[in-house]
Amino acid sequence: MKSRVSTDDGPEIITNGTHLVTFRFSAIINGTKYVNQREILNRKPSIARPPLLNIVSHDPVLSMPQLHRMNNVNLRVIQDDKDELESTDSFNTWIIVGVALSVILSGFIIIW
């Protein structure tokens, strides 16, 4: 398998077979450019350009009704979790009250 390889804007080399290609900044292999993103990029701070979207058809995932339904499902799940926590807290409270009452009654029975 012949490949055309150029690393760090160097000359193009034609290789035959499988090779490990190492590069510091960028490499072009068979017309595809690969960039090493671990190196420090020399960029100046500036205002970011806004992203461009090219929507060619209706996507139900991005529709407002679908997002509204997802929001309602999330709110319902959160409310169910809150209700479950509140019921668990009240159950624990009643257990503590029952234990306290039994201790008080046991104390009155012992004193009497």
What is the H-and-E element order? EEEEH
Proportion of helical residues: 40-55%
Mean pLDDT: 78
Could you list the spans in which at least 5 consecutive residues all have pLDDT below 50? Answer: none
Specify the biggest β-sheet.
Answer: 4 strands, antiparallel
Tally of domains: 2
> How many DSSP H or I helices?
1
Q: For the record, give the distance between the C-alpha atoms at the N and C termini, rounded to a whole number.
A: 100 Å
Portion in beta strands: 15-25%
Which strand order does the major sheet show? 2-1-3-4
Query: Which class best fits the helix and strand makeup?
Result: alpha+beta
Alpha-carbon Rg, integer: 34 Å
Shape: elongated
Total strand segments: 4
Describe the structure concisely for a colleague.
The protein is α+β, with helices and mostly antiparallel strands and 112 residues long. The protein has one helix spanning 64-111, and strands at 2-7, 13-16, 26-29, 32-35. The chain has 2 domains: 1-38, no CATH class; 61-112.
Structure description:
With 112 residues, the protein is α+β, with helices and mostly antiparallel strands. The chain has two domains: 1-38, no CATH class; 61-112. Helices cover 43% and strands 16% of the residues. The protein contains one helix and four strands. Strand 1 and strand 2 (13-16) form a beta hairpin.
